[in-house]
Amino acid sequence: MAPAVTTNLASLLLLADGRFPVGGHAHSGGIEAAMADGRVRDVVDVEAFTIGRLHTTGVMEAALAAATVVRLCGPNAVTERVLAEIDAEADARIPSAPLRAASRRLGRQLTRVAGPCWPDPVLPALGSIDPDGPHQAVALGGVAVAAGVGARDAALLALHHAATTPIQAAIKIAGLDPFALAAVTARLAPVIETLALVAATAADGPLAELPCSSAPLIEIAAATHDRTAQRLFAT
Hints:
It is built from 11 helices and no strands. The model has no long low-confidence stretch (mean pLDDT 91). It has helices at 9-16, 31-36, 43-72, 79-92, 97-117, 122-127, 136-147, 151-174, 178-187, 189-202, 216-226. It has one domain (31-226): Urease accessory protein UreF (Orthogonal Bundle). It is an all-alpha fold. Helix 3 (43-72) runs antiparallel to helix 4 (79-92) and helix 3 packs antiparallel against helix 8.
């Protein structure tokens, strides 16, 4: 199990705030494509879609974020090498080219906005991983370290974003009841808590054995969505 690290609660709340300018508002988490082809039509479908997302890409990203925190807080951490190794694991877990590009774009933006908030040597190291930026989950773990957020809470953050991204996008796309979708988010709290524990526990093990569940239909749809001219969201 990941080591207990005292979390800076104010920083945790800031990172969880949808108004924190990291560019997430431009992404739907795959739900725009799902609504376009009829797989998601109503609040019930949004909840089912989000549960699936949490159990696949959500827990995968949460484990990568938590593993980043665990390794950067270790006694023998070599920041650049550690980050490059975790980033390579993230890259291998995102088969869709548009989603890989989006992940790096979001990671680059998160690293950029974190700089003035929590100046820390880990942030320049994040920026040196790849010319296009670190993957989002790795950036979240690195920024969590800079902000004083522990491994389990970094996993919670990743899962929180995995849930709220498609839920909030569904309101903009189809005008679904925001009160009903807020209730969906609340109902998913136990799922998020459970998966955060799974991710934090896995973070202590070998990187190659981190969760690697994927959602093939979302990966395939991402390629089609990337070529769609009329869309509200980048992904």
